[in-house]
Amino acid sequence: MFKFAILTLATTLSFSTSFAGDHWDNCSSADGFVRLENGQATVDGVGEVQVASVKVLKKIKSEKQTCVLKDYNQKVISYMNDTTVEEVSYIVEKSAPASKVIVICEKGGSGIPANAECKE
Question: Is residue 59 part of a domain?
């Protein structure tokens, strides 16, 4: 049963952007005034704000590494990271118009299922 669970997780990893280990979804304006972490926006001096929309303007870089798990002979994503430029509209107060900011984002993950190792 345990091997089945690991193999199922490994198969999931090879076909999606879900990760067994660490993951990140962080964006920041150039001055650090506006930040997004896992979809939640914060503005310095204000705190959490509502995100109205997010638009990817450009993908700067995309990295992806795969490996084959030793005991399962299954190919998985061991590391993936996308760097993008995005336009984020956010609302500070309900009656105020949305503000827009350009942010740089790093989104990705790394990780191999627990108790698994990559072949060298």
Answer: yes
Are 79 and 63 spatial neighbours (Cβ–Cβ below 8 Å)? Answer: yes
Q: What domain range includes position 95?
A: 2-110
Output the pLDDT for position 11.
34
Whole-structure pTM value: 0.72
Residue 116 lies in a domain: no
Q: Can you list the residues of the chain whose pLDDT is less than 50?
A: 1-17
45-to-24, 33, 56, 83, 91 alpha-carbon distances in Å: 24, 9, 26, 27, 14
Enumerate long-range contacts of 55-58, CB under 8 Å, 24 or more apart.
55/86, 55/87, 55/88, 56/84, 56/85, 56/86, 57/84, 57/85, 57/86, 57/87, 57/102, 58/84, 58/85
What is the number of structural domains in the chain?
1
- Tell me the helix, strand and coil percentages in the chain, rounded to 5: 10, 55, 30
